[in-house]
Amino acid sequence: MAGRQRAPAAASSYLQPVMPAVLFLWVFSCRHVEASIDFANMTALQKHVEFFDRNKDGIITASELFEGYVAIGCDAVFARGTAASISAGVGPITSPDDAPLPHSSIYVEYIHKAMHGSDTGAYDAKGRFVPAKFEEIFTKHAKVRPDALTFEEIEEMILANRDPLDPQSWSAPEGEWGLIYKLASDKQGFLHKDSARGIYDGSVFYKLEEQRTSARSDM
Protein backbone atom coordinates (compact mmCIF):
# COMPACT_ATOMS: atom_id res chain seq x y z
CA MET A 1 0.00 0.00 0.00
CA ALA A 2 1.29 3.43 -0.87
CA GLY A 3 2.64 5.62 1.90
CA ARG A 4 0.67 8.54 3.19
CA GLN A 5 0.68 11.47 0.82
CA ARG A 6 2.09 14.54 2.50
CA ALA A 7 0.69 17.97 1.88
CA PRO A 8 3.25 20.34 0.34
CA ALA A 9 4.97 22.72 2.71
CA ALA A 10 2.97 25.57 1.23
CA ALA A 11 -0.15 23.98 2.66
CA SER A 12 0.88 25.11 6.11
CA SER A 13 0.10 28.67 5.06
CA TYR A 14 -3.54 27.68 4.71
CA LEU A 15 -3.64 26.75 8.37
CA GLN A 16 -2.18 29.97 9.74
CA PRO A 17 -4.81 32.07 11.51
CA VAL A 18 -5.00 35.77 10.82
CA MET A 19 -4.51 37.39 14.20
CA PRO A 20 -6.84 40.36 14.63
CA ALA A 21 -5.48 43.62 15.93
CA VAL A 22 -8.21 43.94 18.52
CA LEU A 23 -8.02 40.94 20.83
CA PHE A 24 -10.33 42.73 23.24
CA LEU A 25 -13.09 41.02 21.24
CA TRP A 26 -12.28 37.95 23.30
CA VAL A 27 -13.15 39.74 26.51
CA PHE A 28 -16.52 40.99 25.30
CA SER A 29 -17.59 37.85 23.44
CA CYS A 30 -19.60 36.58 26.42
CA ARG A 31 -22.05 39.50 26.18
CA HIS A 32 -24.96 38.90 23.82
CA VAL A 33 -28.73 39.02 23.40
CA GLU A 34 -30.89 35.93 23.52
CA ALA A 35 -30.80 33.88 20.33
CA SER A 36 -33.64 32.14 18.54
CA ILE A 37 -32.79 28.88 16.78
CA ASP A 38 -34.91 25.83 15.99
CA PHE A 39 -32.41 23.02 16.56
CA ALA A 40 -34.84 20.43 15.18
CA ASN A 41 -35.04 22.16 11.79
CA MET A 42 -31.59 23.58 11.20
CA THR A 43 -30.17 24.02 7.73
CA ALA A 44 -27.02 22.12 6.80
CA LEU A 45 -24.97 25.29 7.24
CA GLN A 46 -26.38 25.84 10.72
CA LYS A 47 -25.50 22.23 11.54
CA HIS A 48 -22.02 22.87 10.15
CA VAL A 49 -21.34 25.49 12.84
CA GLU A 50 -23.55 24.09 15.63
CA PHE A 51 -20.73 21.89 16.94
CA PHE A 52 -18.93 25.03 18.09
CA ASP A 53 -22.00 26.21 20.03
CA ARG A 54 -20.82 24.31 23.05
CA ASN A 55 -23.66 25.26 25.40
CA LYS A 56 -26.33 25.02 22.66
CA ASP A 57 -27.81 28.47 23.19
CA GLY A 58 -27.71 29.43 19.51
CA ILE A 59 -24.73 31.75 19.98
CA ILE A 60 -21.07 30.92 19.41
CA THR A 61 -18.61 32.99 21.40
CA ALA A 62 -14.87 33.25 20.75
CA SER A 63 -14.20 31.08 23.79
CA GLU A 64 -16.55 28.40 22.44
CA LEU A 65 -14.79 28.50 19.08
CA PHE A 66 -11.48 28.04 20.87
CA GLU A 67 -12.87 25.10 22.83
CA GLY A 68 -14.30 23.54 19.67
CA TYR A 69 -11.08 23.79 17.70
CA VAL A 70 -9.11 22.23 20.54
CA ALA A 71 -11.74 19.48 20.78
CA ILE A 72 -11.20 18.43 17.16
CA GLY A 73 -7.42 18.30 17.53
CA CYS A 74 -6.02 21.79 16.89
CA ASP A 75 -3.25 23.12 19.10
CA ALA A 76 -4.07 25.93 21.50
CA VAL A 77 -2.14 28.64 19.64
CA PHE A 78 -3.88 27.91 16.34
CA ALA A 79 -7.26 27.53 18.06
CA ARG A 80 -7.02 30.85 19.90
CA GLY A 81 -5.88 32.80 16.85
CA THR A 82 -8.46 31.24 14.56
CA ALA A 83 -11.27 31.75 17.07
CA ALA A 84 -10.41 35.43 17.46
CA SER A 85 -10.13 35.90 13.69
CA ILE A 86 -13.44 34.18 12.90
CA SER A 87 -15.25 36.02 15.68
CA ALA A 88 -13.98 39.34 14.36
CA GLY A 89 -14.98 38.51 10.78
CA VAL A 90 -18.22 36.55 11.15
CA GLY A 91 -19.62 37.96 14.38
CA PRO A 92 -20.56 41.41 13.00
CA ILE A 93 -22.22 39.83 9.94
CA THR A 94 -24.43 37.45 11.92
CA SER A 95 -25.19 39.61 14.97
CA PRO A 96 -28.68 41.17 15.22
CA ASP A 97 -28.90 44.94 15.50
CA ASP A 98 -29.64 44.85 19.23
CA ALA A 99 -26.62 42.69 20.05
CA PRO A 100 -24.06 44.49 22.23
CA LEU A 101 -20.91 45.83 20.66
CA PRO A 102 -18.43 44.77 19.41
CA HIS A 103 -20.71 42.13 17.77
CA SER A 104 -18.10 39.42 18.15
CA SER A 105 -20.42 36.49 18.88
CA ILE A 106 -21.74 34.38 16.00
CA TYR A 107 -25.51 33.84 15.87
CA VAL A 108 -26.26 30.42 14.40
CA GLU A 109 -29.66 31.56 13.10
CA TYR A 110 -28.03 34.08 10.75
CA ILE A 111 -24.94 32.13 9.71
CA HIS A 112 -26.10 32.14 6.08
CA LYS A 113 -25.29 35.86 5.98
CA ALA A 114 -21.61 34.98 6.37
CA MET A 115 -21.41 32.69 3.33
CA HIS A 116 -18.42 33.42 1.11
CA GLY A 117 -17.74 33.06 -2.59
CA SER A 118 -15.31 30.73 -4.36
CA ASP A 119 -16.97 27.73 -2.70
CA THR A 120 -18.31 24.44 -4.06
CA GLY A 121 -21.94 25.54 -4.27
CA ALA A 122 -22.97 22.67 -1.99
CA TYR A 123 -24.92 25.19 0.11
CA ASP A 124 -27.66 27.29 -1.43
CA ALA A 125 -28.20 30.95 -0.50
CA LYS A 126 -30.11 29.95 2.65
CA GLY A 127 -27.52 27.41 3.77
CA ARG A 128 -29.39 24.31 2.66
CA PHE A 129 -27.41 21.34 1.36
CA VAL A 130 -27.33 20.84 -2.43
CA PRO A 131 -26.56 17.13 -3.05
CA ALA A 132 -25.87 17.52 -6.78
CA LYS A 133 -23.17 20.11 -6.13
CA PHE A 134 -21.57 17.90 -3.51
CA GLU A 135 -21.46 14.99 -5.94
CA GLU A 136 -19.77 17.26 -8.49
CA ILE A 137 -16.80 17.59 -6.14
CA PHE A 138 -16.03 13.92 -6.72
CA THR A 139 -17.15 13.50 -10.32
CA LYS A 140 -14.94 16.43 -11.34
CA HIS A 141 -11.95 16.12 -9.04
CA ALA A 142 -11.66 12.62 -7.51
CA LYS A 143 -9.34 10.97 -10.06
CA VAL A 144 -7.21 8.57 -8.02
CA ARG A 145 -10.22 7.12 -6.20
CA PRO A 146 -13.89 7.87 -6.94
CA ASP A 147 -14.81 8.04 -3.24
CA ALA A 148 -11.94 10.12 -1.85
CA LEU A 149 -9.77 13.16 -2.52
CA THR A 150 -6.01 13.59 -2.37
CA PHE A 151 -4.46 16.86 -1.24
CA GLU A 152 -3.60 17.70 -4.84
CA GLU A 153 -7.20 17.06 -5.93
CA ILE A 154 -8.48 19.34 -3.19
CA GLU A 155 -6.09 22.03 -4.38
CA GLU A 156 -7.34 21.55 -7.93
CA MET A 157 -10.94 21.90 -6.74
CA ILE A 158 -10.18 25.07 -4.76
CA LEU A 159 -8.49 26.67 -7.76
CA ALA A 160 -11.33 25.65 -10.09
CA ASN A 161 -13.90 27.25 -7.78
CA ARG A 162 -12.11 30.57 -7.38
CA ASP A 163 -14.14 33.57 -8.44
CA PRO A 164 -11.69 35.85 -10.30
CA LEU A 165 -13.87 38.85 -9.45
CA ASP A 166 -13.84 38.08 -5.72
CA PRO A 167 -10.22 37.53 -4.63
CA GLN A 168 -11.12 38.27 -1.01
CA SER A 169 -13.01 34.96 -0.94
CA TRP A 170 -10.05 32.84 -2.01
CA SER A 171 -8.46 32.31 1.39
CA ALA A 172 -11.52 30.90 3.17
CA PRO A 173 -11.80 27.64 1.15
CA GLU A 174 -8.05 27.12 1.43
CA GLY A 175 -8.19 27.38 5.21
CA GLU A 176 -11.33 25.28 5.59
CA TRP A 177 -10.31 22.42 3.30
CA GLY A 178 -6.68 22.56 4.41
CA LEU A 179 -7.68 22.12 8.03
CA ILE A 180 -10.17 19.33 7.43
CA TYR A 181 -7.64 17.49 5.25
CA LYS A 182 -5.04 17.73 7.99
CA LEU A 183 -7.43 16.43 10.65
CA ALA A 184 -9.61 13.92 8.77
CA SER A 185 -7.54 12.39 5.95
CA ASP A 186 -6.48 8.77 6.38
CA LYS A 187 -2.97 7.32 6.67
CA GLN A 188 -2.70 7.04 2.88
CA GLY A 189 -3.51 10.72 2.43
CA PHE A 190 -7.12 10.39 1.28
CA LEU A 191 -10.03 12.50 2.50
CA HIS A 192 -12.94 10.11 2.17
CA LYS A 193 -16.32 11.09 0.79
CA ASP A 194 -18.16 10.45 4.04
CA SER A 195 -15.74 12.74 5.88
CA ALA A 196 -16.20 15.43 3.24
CA ARG A 197 -19.97 15.03 3.54
CA GLY A 198 -19.60 15.44 7.28
CA ILE A 199 -18.09 18.87 6.78
CA TYR A 200 -21.37 20.15 5.41
CA ASP A 201 -23.57 19.00 8.28
CA GLY A 202 -20.94 19.28 11.01
CA SER A 203 -20.97 15.57 11.84
CA VAL A 204 -17.26 15.21 11.04
CA PHE A 205 -16.44 17.52 13.95
CA TYR A 206 -18.23 15.26 16.43
CA LYS A 207 -16.37 12.25 15.00
CA LEU A 208 -13.03 14.01 15.34
CA GLU A 209 -13.80 14.97 18.93
CA GLU A 210 -14.84 11.40 19.73
CA GLN A 211 -11.66 10.01 18.16
CA ARG A 212 -9.50 12.44 20.12
CA THR A 213 -11.30 11.65 23.38
CA SER A 214 -10.97 7.92 22.73
CA ALA A 215 -7.27 8.23 21.92
CA ARG A 216 -6.62 10.15 25.13
CA SER A 217 -8.49 7.59 27.23
CA ASP A 218 -6.35 4.80 25.74
CA MET A 219 -3.10 6.49 26.74
Automatic annotation (TrEMBL):
Domain annotation EF-hand: ranges: 40-75
InterPro entries in the cross-refs: Caleosin-related, EF-hand-dom_pair, EF_Hand_1_Ca_BS, EF_hand_dom
Keyword terms, alphabetized: Calcium, Signal
Signal sequence range: 1-35
Record carries keyword Cell membrane: no
Molecular function per GO: calcium ion binding
Keyword Signal among UniProt keywords: yes
UniProt cross-references to PANTHER family, sorted A to Z: OS06G0254600 PROTEIN, PEROXYGENASE 3-RELATED
Stated family: Belongs to the caleosin family.
Protein name: EF-hand domain-containing protein
Species the sequence originates in: Sorghum bicolor
